[in-house]
Design goal:
Length: 562
């Protein structure tokens, strides 16, 4: 677009740091939309490929589960806290520079990951341990994923019809949900025999395509101004340290267990540093975060709802997927399972884009939570013989809910922020990002703790009811012994090994019973949440109130003023 072009009043950037929204011809709109979708999917791979291949990464690099956990910490801690800085970088330096910095960072990240996976750094001339390079790459990846999501949203906004332009927000945030199922589907084809080099080479290729696309069709320019203050960096340092410490606590707590003494230190650090950051922001003249607004009843309710939804949605990525992994199913056997999840996600995104109504944002959220409840109730009927196809219906529902709730949540948060002024949008972005990232980590941690405890309890109950005189039990041991007799010649050792196999079978039964308890708990929580949201919704309907009436009126006045 020519620099000589003068933007009309309705084409002006909505706020400092965002691109203008000119009336593009249809062909250009289509290209903007396609580029936005491609960038969004590429952004989703940053976390998806890590989640799908963490076990292989650990095996390839010879890492312990604890060391693998630090890789997850590196990604999540940067992804959760970088939102604040990204917003101000766009305001001060503009979208053009922001786009190029983002893609250069992504290029550096994917190049580093490919170098590590290709073992080109495994020489005596290279002093840096590849494991530490992987941690650095994952930390950069977390930052880049947030920035790429922002780029995808802005490109999608440019490609949307004027009447549906804000739906670009739904599209941009929804595309991020495709990362895990897409990564699970393609990983078995690319990471053949556990070799990850091709996988990261594929990611590097996507990055190069993105780099070319944003240079072929840049975002329209926007307004900039000097926004950084010295206190920003101090406040951000405390805030980022706290979120990083919280990520350490949630990730390593799952792996090393919560009673590990040193885990109390990151939790204390998180509480202290985040409190200091919020205190600084509360007493600043020009705060980055509108803490008083964030403490309001409506925003707290919004944050809790978003976090609870993310915790409930862990039933899929950690619950059902964890059960199938414990039953011995690998990525290559779950391709159809994740294809079903991806299909549900795409369907939910399309429906959400075209059906989300700004005047009725609570009903889709209630429907999404109800779907999670029904899906979780269906999953309670599991056994040792459960197979992936038995989860298709329930997981389709939950995957649909995961994307379908996103649009109304984003709309509500944005409306509440915009009604108070552009300065509040950064606070919404931080709240939403933290509720999703930390909520996801907390959900995974809670599920891991619950299933571990329940497995131990079920196992103890089953073993305590052992009766060595039980004919059925003795028949199991004898059958296992006969199978092992061809491998172990000593009869006593064969009997001991046979008893060990029987105990392993009991361990698997205990694990399945624990997951059944988990699905029951998730179904109960989702049902109660649905009831609470429904009662609140009916209360407002009865009194003919719109919970967002005040915000919608304020936005309408802003439009009239323009």
């Amino acid at each position: 677009m020519s620099n000589e072009y003068q933007f009309k009043p309705h084409e002006q950037p909505f706020m400092v740091g965002s691109p203008a929204t000119p009336d593009h011809p249809t062909r250009r709109k289509v290209f903007y939309l396609l580029i936005g979708i491609f960038i969004g999917i590429t952004a989703s791979f940053q976390n998806g490929l890590l989640v799908a291949n963490l076990t292989q990464i650990q095996g390839e690099m010879g890492l312990t589960p604890v060391e693998g956990g630090w890789i997850s910490v590196a990604y999540n801690m940067t992804n959760a806290c970088i939102t604040v800085l990204l917003y101000k970088i766009r305001q001060q330096f503009g979208m053009a520079l922001f786009s190029k910095i983002t893609l250069f960072s992504l290029l550096a990240t994917t190049s580093l990951q490919w170098l590590v996976s290709s073992h080109l750094l495994d020489t005596s001339a290279i002093i840096i341990e590849p494991y530490y390079l992987e941690i650095i790459a994952r930390g950069l990846s977390g930052m880049v994923a947030s920035a790429m999501t922002v780029l995808a949203i802005f490109y999608c906004l440019q490609g949307m019809p004027t009447a549906k332009r804000i739906s670009g927000l739904i599209l941009g945030f929804g595309l991020v949900q495709f990362g895990i199922p897409l990564s699970r589907i393609i990983s078995p084809y690319l990471a053949v025999d556990g070799q990850l080099e091709t996988l990261f080479l594929f990611e590097l290729g996507l990055t190069l395509i993105c780099f070319a696309l944003i240079n072929i069709l840049e975002l329209p320019p926007g307004n900039t101004e000097k926004v950084f203050e010295k206190l920003d960096f101090l406040s951000f340092a405390f805030f980022a340290s706290g979120l990083a410490a919280l990520a350490v606590f949630l990730v390593q707590g799952r792996i090393q267990w919560w009673t590990t003494p040193w885990l109390s230190y990151p939790l204390i650090i998180a509480v202290v540093t985040i409190s200091i950051a919020l205190w600084i922001e509360t007493h600043r003249k020009n705060p980055m975060l509108q803490v008083r607004w964030m403490r309001s009843r409506n925003i707290i309710a919004f944050t809790i709802t978003g976090a609870v939804m993310r915790i409930l949605l862990s039933e899929q990525n950690v619950g059902a997927a964890g059960l199938l992994a414990n039953l011995g199913y690998g990525n290559d056997q779950l391709i159809t399972f994740y294809a079903v999840i991806l299909a549900a996600s795409v369907l939910a995104l399309v429906i959400s884009i075209f059906r989300t109504n700004a005047m009725d944002l609570r009903r889709p959220v209630i429907f999404a939570v109800a779907l999670i409840a029904v899906g979780a109730w269906l999953d309670t009927d599991i056994s040792l013989n459960s197979a992936p196809y038995m989860f298709y219906v329930s997981q389709f529902m939950i995957a649909f809910a995961a994307v379908y709730f996103m649009g109304p949540m984003v709309f509500e948060g944005m409306f509440r922020a915009i009604a108070n002024g552009p300065a509040y949008i950064i606070s919404f972005s931080v709240i939403f990002s933290i509720s999703q990232t930390i909520g996801g980590l907390a959900g995974a941690a809670a599920i891991q703790a619950f299933t571990t405890i329940r497995t131990q309890m079920h196992y103890a109950d089953m073993v305590s009811s052992f009766n060595l005189g039980d004919p059925a039990l003795m028949a199991q041991v004898a059958g296992a012994g006969r199978m092992l007799s061809t491998q172990i010649t000593d009869a006593n050792q064969a009997n001991v090994a046979a008893m060990g196999q029987v105990l392993q079978g009991i361990q698997r039964q205990a694990t399945v019973a624990a997951y059944a308890d988990l699905f029951f708990l998730m179904a109960t929580i989702a049902s109660i949440t649905t009831l609470i949201l429904l009662l609140n919704y009916l209360y407002h309907r009865y009194h003919k109130r719109n919970p967002l009436a005040k915000e919608l009126a304020a936005i309408a006045k802003m439009r009239e003023a323009k």
